[in-house]
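User: quick one
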Amino acid sequence: MPLADFQAQVRGAIVDGKVAPLTAVLTGGTEPLKRFAIHQRHYEASLVRALVEKFPAVVWLAGSPFVTAAAAAFIRLSPPSAPCIAEYGEGFPAYLAGRAEAQHLPWLRWVGELEWQLGHAALVLEHAPLSIEALAKVAPARLADCALTLQPGLHYLAAPWPVDALVKLFLSDSAPESYALDPEHVFLEVRGARGAFSMTRLDAATFIFHRALAQCLSVGGAAENALDADPAFDAGQGLVQLIAAGLATAIGGADKDPQQ
Amino acid sequence: MSGHLAWSTHEGEYLNDLLPLPYDQETLRLVAAHVDEVQQGLGRPYLVENPSSYIGMATSTMNEVEFLSELVCRTGCKLLCDVSNVYLSGHNLGYDPHVYIDAMPAEAIGELHLGGFLAEDDEADAGQQVLIDTHAQRIAEAAWDLYAYALRRFGPKPTLIEWDNDLPAVATLLSEAERADAIAAAILEPEYQRAVG
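Assistant: Done. Structure below.
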């Protein structure tokens, strides 16, 4: 049997539970397929544990049995596509929210999305921030065409529920017996580094401005997007505040030339 | 730099495990090509480590140590002998770990590993036990004995104790390292004295 076919059979047995094709191939004990189950159990146990540990607030809110069962199903549908398991699970919040048992928890997806971002933001190292003086050296006529590089630990989440409040409750260790959560659009900036993180609510225009800059749009392009959301948005002031908060690390041409 | 004789990726999916290979000419050609590529990139020999095995392949045309020896011949790579894996795999697949150690190309051994394993009831063999590689407990007495046997065969080699799950107190880790040092000293010091005296 060609090696690639053998690997496809092993993959099918581990991910999909289709062990029959391996019956004639394996040796080990009198029932080798039961030995092979060691690998099947490892796949499920290690990945389910990774997902459950990555979304502790989701587990806190929705319960461990539900999240664990959903994780066990998710790993069959979406095996890891990268070697680092820390990067596994980005699609889990959306999958979780699509399950019938979660229909009464419409905010659950957004809690999961926020947790995913918090977990990733906290893993990075911040770079030296761009100074106001460096910004001032850019000719005003060229500023709109420049692009900024933002801190690597910045993430942006627009959610139809105030899920930052839920996550803060989870982190506070002082959760009330009951908590009323009403729909509310929130625009969150997550910033993290070296194991720590923060969540800041922004107004819609500032959120759009920052997110567009994070997506490498030019300053002018980002400002246009923000002005579409709020004609009163002050792009100059927004840019100064962003620099003052240490969110940018470099400024260059739209093609990310070195600082000029 | 080292890596296990195993695979974990298929068509863009990562299965988060060290999965077994059939030991035949096709696998040998493929693994040799990969080792060659890595060594070209590194500019130095790569160490290939024997895996912990629970199953074998009926389609294999050579045993593991024959495969590794041929890999050394073809690529000039080195071997990392995980002594605990030799013991565990021998127990699980029914071969003598001492014969395995005897058959390894001693000149290619660059490093030794030791790690804890767990005995569980073997669902594949009623009344028997299967050994699971966990790196979560003390090294078994039988693995220490095999370590001593390997040192006599291979001579002094850098040794790493793998304990990366359910970590104990540092004192426990240090005591395992001290035991490895003591075994090496007891075996290698007399040989050194004989050689220089």
